[in-house]
Write a structure and sequence with these properties.
The structure holds 2 protein chains of 2 kinds. Chain A is α+β, with helices and mostly antiparallel strands. Helix content of chain A is about 30%, strand content about 30%. The radius of gyration of chain A is 17 Å and the shape is elongated. In chain B, strand 5 (about 255), helix 14 (about 265-270) and strand 6 form a beta-alpha-beta unit. Chain B is globular and about 75 Å long. Classes of the chains: A alpha+beta, B alpha/beta. Chain A: Keywords: Nucleus, Ribosome biogenesis, RNA-binding.
Chain lengths: ~180, ~525
């Protein structure tokens, strides 16, 4: 477990900013309790400093996880957000997409969001923008990247893809072995 | 009888006075007589119902007198040849066993009435009953006997079913599916509404928990709904609420869960602590920490550190916890309905090894607690087993080994209190504060919960401690003071000296000389 290096922080923060934009400062400078980012076995954990200090006493091979896992660095140094980061993305997300009940299950099985399943979308979403996906009762289900801007979606046919799937809560069941 | 019947009707609710109490007592006598008659009829009916499938007892359906005939009662037990025959054909037929079990139970329950006349020993009936249970329910004989002995054979009224048989029957039936609302994400009412909309039929479990829901039937898989994936609830047996309720962790505490996978109890604790403080969730099995981590993240618990140590390393890794939950690895005799392989694969050795491990773990757990904690200083020990040597015996061991520890009330409203004496072993009197749960009584998995309060270690002079112990031992009035007796012990001292010299490889003087010197 160690703090992120300059380069690592840059890569990770860029990825996070893609979803929550300027709200990133709320994660870095928390009002309630100081939190920090820690790297352990290639994964980035976001954890309160008090927990981190106590977690130090656990030896490296025995430590499995602490706080919330945001994502991991792959071997080429890119940062991939995991579904576990949804807890922090959802409250701060700038752009949101709501999907209809009949689109919930297809999305939770790892499919992209089609126009037919689109319930609502934030008004001025640009193209290739990170969005958090909710169902109609405002439960966050995952996140993805828009394929078209809000304006362009109007003219698309119902089977075309609106949001490219990146992560969904179904991964807790599907990828339990590889996620952690 | 008719007179007393009338009296009965008239005075049922009236207060007892000098004028009517004779009539009342007559009425009660009559009622007892009627009940006895009903019992007799019931027995006869049972005998009649089964007689066609049991050729050996044609005479049974005729009359109660004949049922009680010594030969008939004795004939229930198979002879040695019959047993051999049964073995040859690969065990007796199911209905024969069933019938024999019922008869044995009936006789044992009213041993004074039926059994004494039979001329057979009571132990013979017991032995046969255990064998039949093992056969009928598919247990190995060792485990069948172990579980059977949990429920003492009492001279109960014959209308009451026999408890051990009830227990074995309950193990064949699955317990209801229950879920726990994750209060970090939603409220029980909202969750219930959301699930009802998906076609799930559910209801609150009971008054003792405000987060539990019992699922009756569901048109969708309950472990894969969007609500489940979003962490609004956890699939969790009702019994595993109990240790967490007993522990009742408070916000801003430091808590240890020594054997936590798959995380049902850990996440429950995090919810009770409202994501403050810190929870160390430990599990010795690294593969199982994956599902633990997944559940911790899915339910949004942010104050959890997951680690993978052997639980016995714990006070060394970290101590000073306000509360510790030890849900010890166990034989699983309480969850046979979930995992039937327990019936056959547990032997005496497993129980010895497990209780040894549990004893080590509980001491480690106690040592990890901070006795100076302002809010806590508690340890909860729980198992999903009903065996006494994994439960009361372990608790008793901990009480003996750690004098600064005592049992406190678990705070659970239901459950039976633990045994203070069991088959010749007697435990500390406070063991009755522990709680046992049975599938046939409470409709939860078989479970055991004990709550300890850890106090500061009293600093005592060494001599003082010894004196105190002497007082405790001293039960039959004042005794002679025990002190060092140089004359009597000289021989032993010499002997010990010899041994010490020998161990060092030195030559020792011959024994006769040493003994003579001592004398």
């Amino acid at each position: 477990m160690r703090p992120l290096t300059e380069d690592e922080s840059k890569v990770a923060f860029e990825k996070l900013a893609n979803y929550i934009g300027k709200n990133l400062v709320h994660l870095v400078d928390r009002q309630d309790e100081p939190h920090c980012f820690r790297l352990h076995k290639g994964r980035v954990y976001y954890v309160s400093e008090a927990s981190m200090r106590l977690g130090i006493s656990v030896a490296r091979p025995n430590l499995v996880s602490l706080g919330t896992c945001l994502g991991k660095f792959n071997k080429s140094g890119k940062f991939k957000l995991h579904i576990t980061s949804l807890d922090y993305l959802a409250p701060y997300a700038k752009y949101k997409v709501w999907i209809k009940p009949n689109g919930e299950m297809p999305f939770l099985y790892g499919n992209h969001v089609l126009k037919a399943h689109l319930g609502r979308i934030t008004e001025d979403t640009p193209e290739h923008q990170g969005v958090v996906i909710y169902n109609m009762s405002d439960v966050p289900l995952g996140f993805g990247v828009t394929a078209r801007s809000t304006v362009d979606t109007r003219k698309l046919d119902p089977t075309s893809i609106i949001v490219f799937h990146q992560a969904d809560v179904g991964e807790y069941l599907r990828d339990e072995d590889t996620l952690f | 009888m008719s007179d007393s019947d009338i009296g009965d009707d008239e005075d049922e609710d009236a207060p007892i006075t000098a004028s009517n109490f004779e009539a009342r007592s007559l009425a009660l006598d009559a009622m007892a007589a009627r009940e006895a008659q009903l019992d007799a009829q019931e027995l006869q009916l049972v005998g009649q119902a089964d007689v066609d499938e049991f050729e050996g007892a044609e005479d049974m359906d005729n009359d109660e007198e004949e049922v009680d005939a010594p030969e008939a009662v004795g004939a229930i037990l198979p002879t040695a040849e019959e047993r051999e025959d049964e073995k040859r054909v690969g065990g007796p037929e199911v209905h024969v066993v069933q019938k024999r079990m019922r008869e044995c139970v009936r006789i044992l329950k009213r041993w004074k009435v039926y059994g004494v006349k039979s001329g057979r020993a009571r132990s013979e009936f017991l032995e046969q009953l255990v064998l039949d249970i093992a056969n009928y329910y598919g247990y190995n004989v060792f485990l069948a006997e172990k579980l059977f002995q949990l429920f003492p054979v009492t001279e109960a009224r014959s209308s009451e079913p026999y408890e051990a048989i009830e227990f074995f029957d309950a193990n064949e039936v699955p317990r209801p599916v229950t879920i726990r609302t994750n209060s970090l994400r939603t409220r029980r009412r909202d969750l219930a509404q959301a699930l009802i909309n998906r076609g799930v039929n559910l209801e609150p479990i009971g008054k003792w928990t405000n987060v539990g829901l019992q699922v009756y039937e569901s048109s969708v898989p309950i472990g894969a709904t969007p609500e489940y994936l979003a962490g609004h609830y956890m699939l969790q047996a009702a019994s595993s609420f109990l240790p967490v309720i007993a522990l009742s962790p408070q916000p801003h505490e430091r808590v240890l869960d020594m054997a936590s996978s798959p995380g049902g109890k850990t996440t429950h604790m995090a919810a009770l602590m409202q994501n403050t403080g810190i929870i160390f969730a430990n599990d010795a099995n690294k593969a199982r920490t994956k599902s633990l981590t997944a559940n911790v993240h899915r339910l949004g618990c942010k104050n959890v550190v997951v680690c993978s140590y052997d639980g016995r390393e714990f006070p060394k890794v970290m101590g000073g916890f306000d509360r510790v939950l030890l849900d010890a690895p166990c034989s699983g005799t309480g969850v046979i309905s979930k995992d039937a392989s327990v019936k056959t694969n547990k032997t005496e050795r497993d129980f010895t090894l497990l209780s040894h491990l549990q004893k080590q773990l509980i001491l480690c757990g106690i040592d990890s607690v901070n006795p100076a904690s302002r809010t806590g200083g508690y340890l909860v020990y729980s198992t999903c087993s009903v065996a006494v040597d994994e439960n009361e015996a372990v608790v008793d061991y901990a009480l003996r080994k750690r004098p600064n520890v005592h049992l406190v009330d678990t705070g659970l409203e239901f459950g039976r209190s633990g045994y203070t004496s069991y088959r010749g072993k007697s435990f500390h009197a406070s063991v009755k504060l522990t709680r046992r749960f049975y599938p046939h009584v409470h409709n939860v998995d078989g479970f055991f919960v004990a709550k300890f309060k850890i106090m500061k270690r009293a600093k005592k002079e060494k001599g003082e401690d010894e004196v105190k112990q002497g007082v405790v031992m001293d039960e039959d009035g004042p005794q002679e003071e025990i002190r060092f007796d140089e004359m009597g012990d000289g021989q032993y001292i010499q002997e010990a000296k010899r041994r010490r010299l020998k161990a060092r490889g030195l030559r020792v003087p011959p024994r006769s000389h040493a003994a003579g010197a001592a004398a």
